[in-house]
Amino acid sequence: MRFASLRRLLPALAAVALVGGAAAADIHSSSPTGTPPRQAVAALAAGNARFVAGTATHPDQSVDRRAEVAPAQHPIAVIVSCSDSRVPPEIVFDQGLGDLFVVRCAGNVVSNEDLGSIEYAAEHQGVRLVVVLGHQRCGAVTAAAQSDHAPGHIDSLVRAIRPAVLAVRGKPGDPIDNAVRANVRLVVHRIATSQPIIAPKYRSGDVQVVGAYYSLDTGKVTFLK
Q1: Which of 9, 110, 182, 223 could form a disulfide with 114 if both were Cys (CB 3.0 to 4.6 A apart)?
Q2: Strand ranges (DSSP E) for the chain?
Q3: What does pTM read for this prediction?
Q4: How far apart are CA 79 and CA 110, in angstroms?
Q5: DSSP state of 218
Q6: Is 207 helix (H, G, I), strand (E, B) or coil?
Q7: Confidence band, pLDDT 50/70/90 cuts, at residue 6
Q8: DSSP annotation string for 81-136
Q9: Residue 8, CA distances (Å) to 15, 17, 58, 202 in order
């Protein structure tokens, strides 16, 4: 009886093992290739143009869209943005549910945890574009320009941004605006050279990392060269 019972259980055990193995494989494998970077940039630029013109369409925010993306997500881009309440990426780029994978921190700097989030989007969600979005009159950059220290954990933000401030010191133009753009470029470099996941994808062209600047006055996003 014991052998007969075991034989009856084997198909069920095999099915459980198969499902478990498939789940494990999904966790440790990359998603299919996502939206090409150039196409993703075009979609973001078009959405921002609508936002600037006051003709935003607020796409992908319906009940049907919510149901569509509930099982899985396939965002077109990672947006590394400042936490500033005036710069919400989904609104600025006129996007909706499941469209953007957003990583936000004051001064749009990235910690190891943030890099891990970006790696997850690239490795498991197939995202091929990372946009580092700085903005006009950034308070975190201003704090770093005014002092090389700050109270509490704000000090970690200041220390992260300070190299950008020093890099543009004495150069023509508005010092804060120059530092904002320099900070974006430094963060772009840090992400693009991040090992072991992003750097190889960046070198192969599978992932692009670009900088952008948001004007609080006009709402326009300019992609930086």
Answers
A1: 110
A2: 77-81, 100-104, 129-135, 208-214, 221-224
A3: 0.85
A4: 12
A5: T
A6: coil
A7: very low
A8: E---TT--HHHHTT--TTTEEEEE-GGG---HHHHHHHHHHHHHS---EEEEEEET
A9: 12, 15, 55, 51
